[in-house]
Specification:
The protein has 497 residues and is of the alpha/beta class. It is 43% helix and 14% strand. The strands form 4 sheets. The protein has a 6-stranded mixed beta sheet, sandwiched between helices. It has a 5-stranded parallel beta sheet with strand order 8-5-6-7-15, with helices on both faces. Strand 9 (262-267), helix 11 and strand 10 (287-294) form a beta-alpha-beta unit. The protein binds pyridoxal-5'-phosphate.
Length: 497
């Protein structure tokens, strides 16, 4: 038996908890993020995963990180998550189009990649709660830029012992994203529109998590907060799985041979997805470059080029709303690792981020970022990429995936690197039908969303996914809106505090 794996806080070196506790808490008390104290190695050569199913891959990876779950508990979580909620038994198929491999992470309940982690998180959380004899109701408090919200609602709806409250920027999500959320069923679900952007929502949620007085009143009412945002390690670890799985599928399809390296290009917002790729690389997966693709909110692009993270800039609404983010929360974990797991230094930089809105990293830290390449894709380039790929191959991608596809083309032109590359495909084009049809046909003729979705079905020759079909006839169940300042009050009202 190897030594147990403990999780440390990125901001307090004295803290150390087991996986189940980190999953229950979400965020550490002083605002830090939980990180594994060491990164386990792959339990077998990466190529050996080629003979495993998605669920089997998931078990082999997750058991290393969640080592205080029993085999039975973990397998139960995995089987409850990756079942026929997904519309393909492969769960995460890989397909080739025009010289790159697309890892399709949109075959789950809400047709976006957050399903990969949020379909398992509720099971991990309720299992962890049972382990710790927690009797309080778990209140999931989430800020969403669109996809997290619905995926979390779908995951937690009617899960016993939980309530879920989702805040979304009222004018910052796509019509389909919004409709998916406001039609959510389940007595324990609450969905609230905020007059502000995603960072306003996320900022207020973080504040509530750090509010000691509020926490006290919660516990008096037999509630406890937890987070379904990508800061929870119960979201991060399940995302490592599909990097390993993608590699093993390229082996299986004969694209690469054992030990050969591949690149991943990841459309990035909060930095959760690509961070999972970084952990996969550190586990020993043969990954050469992690290409971080930003949209016009190019704060990460600037960070990788200059070593300065600076959120003091205009927030831009784009056709890839789930990446419209100026504070990429999960970057804190990478910062922690590249300063040699130094919590004091990380806390200092994060303090600067909150007081000055910016920080610089040292030359030594920059050295450790050489496996990353940052690229940014403009609005125009995003639309052109969708159209170009369709003309070349007949394959239609969504705007988030297009940001990554374009970043990869730029990277390849700059670097002349011909390493086989997987583009992490994070949403179905059906979720962003209006942007996609406009990119393909230059116009939408002011068609309603439903008509655009039908048009997309004609163009792509793929069937409308069940998650979208029928959405337009569901009753609206959530109409509440608030200002960012009113978010605390909304929570107090819901919980009767
Ligand atoms: C959330 C999301 C992203 C960004 O992922 P991060 O883990 O926040 O970097 C990209 N594309 C889609 C469709 C998403 O929903």
């Amino acid at each position: 038996m190897s030594k147990e794996l403990r999780y440390k806080s990125t901001r307090d070196s004295s803290l150390s908890v087991r996986a189940s506790e980190a999953i229950l808490k979400g965020l550490s008390n002083e605002g830090g993020l939980f990180v594994p104290e060491r990164v386990p190695s792959l339990p077998m050569p990466a190529a050996a995963f080629a003979s495993l199913s998605y669920r089997e891959c998931a078990y082999e990876i997750m058991r290393l990180f969640f080592d205080d779950f029993s085999e039975e508990e973990l397998k139960h979580c995995i089987e409850s998550a990756y079942d026929d909620k997904f519309d393909t038994a492969e769960i995460a198929p890989v397909r080739e189009a025009s010289g790159a491999w697309y890892l399709e992470l949109f075959h789950g309940a809400t047709i976006a990649f957050k399903d990969m982690a949020l379909s398992i998180l509720p099971h991990l959380m309720t299992t962890a709660a049972r382990k710790h004899g927690v009797e309080d109701t778990i209140v999931i408090l989430t800020a969403t830029s669109g996809d997290t919200g619905k995926a979390a609602l779908a995951g937690f709806a009617d899960v016993e012992g939980t309530k879920i409250i989702v805040f979304y920027p009222k004018d910052g999500v796509s019509p389909v994203q919004k409709l998916q959320m406001v039609t959510q069923r389940g007595d324990n679900t609450f969905v609230i529109g905020v007059d502000g952007n995603f960072d306003d929502c996320q900022g207020a949620v973080k504040k509530m998590f750090n509010d000691g007085e509020l926490k006290k009143r919660l516990s008096d009412g037999h509630f406890r907060f937890s987070s379904a945002n990508s800061i929870n390690i119960g979201r991060l670890v399940p995302q490592i799985v599909y990097y390993v799985y993608a590699y093993s599928r390229l082996i299986k399809n004969g694209v690469i041979k054992e030990g050969e390296e591949i690149n991943f290009t990841v459309p990035t917002g909060n930095f959760g997805n690509i961070l999972a790729g970084y952990y996969a690389k550190r586990m020993g997966l043969p990954v050469k470059m992690l290409i971080c693709a930003s949209n016009e909110n190019r704060v990460l692009f600037d960070f990788f080029r200059s070593g300065t993270y600076d959120k003091n800039r205009k927030f831009i609404l784009t056709s890839s709303p789930s990446m419209d983010i100026l504070v990429s929360s999960n970057l804190e974990r990478l910062i922690y690792h590249i300063c040699d797991d130094n919590a004091e230094k990380t806390a200092e930089l994060m303090k600067l981020l909150s007081t000055e809105g910016k920080y610089d990293i040292s030359e030594g830290m920059r050295e450790k970022l050489k496996d990353f390449a940052g690229y940014a894709t403009s609005q125009r380039e995003t639309g052109e990429m969708i159209d170009t790929l369709f003309k070349e191959s007949g394959y239609i991608i969504d705007p988030h995936t297009a940001v990554a596809a374009h970043a990869y083309r730029q990277y390849r032109a700059d670097s002349k690197d011909e390493t086989p590359t997987v583009i992490v495909s994070t949403a179905s084009p059906y979720k962003f039908a209006s942007s996609v049809v406009r990119a393909l046909e230059g116009k939408t003729d002011d068609k309603e969303d439903k008509a655009l979705i039908d048009r997309l079905e004609e163009l792509s020759k793929t069937k409308i996914p069940p998650a979208v079909d029928g959405l337009f006839s569901l009753p609206i169940l959530h109409r509440k809106t608030t200002s960012p300042e009113g978010m605390v009050l909304a929570v107090e009202e819901i919980l009767g505090l």
